[in-house]
Write a sequence for this structure.
């Protein structure tokens, strides 16, 4: 059966749905998304319909009664979605008499119009019909949608002009970058990358993409932030599409806001794509919940790149020691012993569990567990122990090396 495919603009148009069962609910949700003004006629409905009506801001009405031919007045489209074959046939016949398109949910061969299996990927909508076979159409729809998700170029042209996109790359595993971040990365002319970003993704970039490494290593060579700001701005002003690839989330101890400010000040278009932060992902990958009913209802986060008592520190370690909140520390390897001691002075019990998570999400991930008292009693930092090179494992109860995420709190004991 040959059908003419068509996309309708239903914004502000009246649509009638006869019936309020499971199939009708799916149709209603799609019509709401399309901006239609929907009238549902049905004596009864599931609980969800009343909720939809309340949330629709007047776009959805429900008449709790049987269908009458007067319901077809002033509508542009009709859906017959009841379990009564004769009633659906009546609605379809009366709609035809008024030259209205009617979709029958029960009998595709008797329906003047069909609803395709559809999926939206960015601004591309895939709509598939399979000779009235909804299961086959759904399978095909899912395959096409998966292909569009995997290959961003047909799905949506990326940034048409020059500019900067700040991409949070996640904790390290390439599979944990967001889909949008991956797409923007593939569309770049130049990628400015950090040491902790998902570097294996750089191998899939086209050969003509320039890769600039500005990664910082502890106590090692590092590009200055001002130089990075200047680099991405200059490249964007030169007409290139710049992807600034960072580890974790660029707005969580990543100086992302500084780079955005530099772009804005220079008049460069900039987009921010959030990333999966190691603050939450590293504990989760280590089997440690940051909150747990009956243990703690809060967690707090800090960077430990300066020790307690340093004039640059803004953390109230004594208050943190007095609380029972889970503490998550980033960049704290060097000063972890001093931080643990400050928490003990603030009142944290010495037996409080402490976990150190190294290389979260990578094949080299490892987790070490100790206690606050043990950590406070020895130097634990790989870069702080005499004779230990940056990046090597250190002695001590946790034997950490950067990059590491530290979790302090009773939730550590829940680790499987």
């Amino acid at each position: 059966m040959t059908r003419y495919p068509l996309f309708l603009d239903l914004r502000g148009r009246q649509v009638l749905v006869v019936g309020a069962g499971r199939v009708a609910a799916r149709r209603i949700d799609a019509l709401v998304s399309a901006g239609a003004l929907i009238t549902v006629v049905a004596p009864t409905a599931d609980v969800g319909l009343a909720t939809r009506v309340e949330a629709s801001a007047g776009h959805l009405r429900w008449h709790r009664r049987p269908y009458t031919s007067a319901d077809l007045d002033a509508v542009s489209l009709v859906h017959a979605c009841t379990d009564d074959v004769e009633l659906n046939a009546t609605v379809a016949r009366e709609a035809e008499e008024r030259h209205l398109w009617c979709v029958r949910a029960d009998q595709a061969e008797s329906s003047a119009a069909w609803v395709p299996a559809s999926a939206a990927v960015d601004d591309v909508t895939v709509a598939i019909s399979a000779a009235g076979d909804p299961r086959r159409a759904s399978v095909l729809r899912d395959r096409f949608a998966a292909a569009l998700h995997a290959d961003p170029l047909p799905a949506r042209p990326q940034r048409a002009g020059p500019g900067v996109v700040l991409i949070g790359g996640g904790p390290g595993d390439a599979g944990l970058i967001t889909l949008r971040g991956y797409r923007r990365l593939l569309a770049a002319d130049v990628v400015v990358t950090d040491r902790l970003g998902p570097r294996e993704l750089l191998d899939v970039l086209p050969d003509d993409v320039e890769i600039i490494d500005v990664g910082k290593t502890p106590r090692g060579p590092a590009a200055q932030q001002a130089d990075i700001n200047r680099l991405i701005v200059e490249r964007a002003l030169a007409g290139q599409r710049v992807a600034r690839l960072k580890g974790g989330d660029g707005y969580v101890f990543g100086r992302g806001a500084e780079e955005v400010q530099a772009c804005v000040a220079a008049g460069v278009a900039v987009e921010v794509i959030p990333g999966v932060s190691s603050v939450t992902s590293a504990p989760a990958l280590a089997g440690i919940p940051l909150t747990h009913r009956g243990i703690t209802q809060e967690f707090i986060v800090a960077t430990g790149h300066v020790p307690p008592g340093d004039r640059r520190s803004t953390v109230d370690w004594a208050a943190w020691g007095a609380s029972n909140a889970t503490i998550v520390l980033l960049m704290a390897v060097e000063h972890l012993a001093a931080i643990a001691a400050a928490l003990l002075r603030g009142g944290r019990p010495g037996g409080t569990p402490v976990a150190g998570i190294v290389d979260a999400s990578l094949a080299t991930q490892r987790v070490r567990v100790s206690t606050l008292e043990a950590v406070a009693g020895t130097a634990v930092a790989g870069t702080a122990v005499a004779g230990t090179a940056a990046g090597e494992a250190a002695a001590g109860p946790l034997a950490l090396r950067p990059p590491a995420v530290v979790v302090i709190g009773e939730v550590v004991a829940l680790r499987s």
Remarks:
- Confidence is low (pLDDT under 50) at residues 154-159, 379-395.
- The chain is about 30% helix and 20% strand.
- The chain has three domains: 14-115, 163-276, 280-414.
- The CA atoms of residues 163 and 269 lie 5 Å apart.
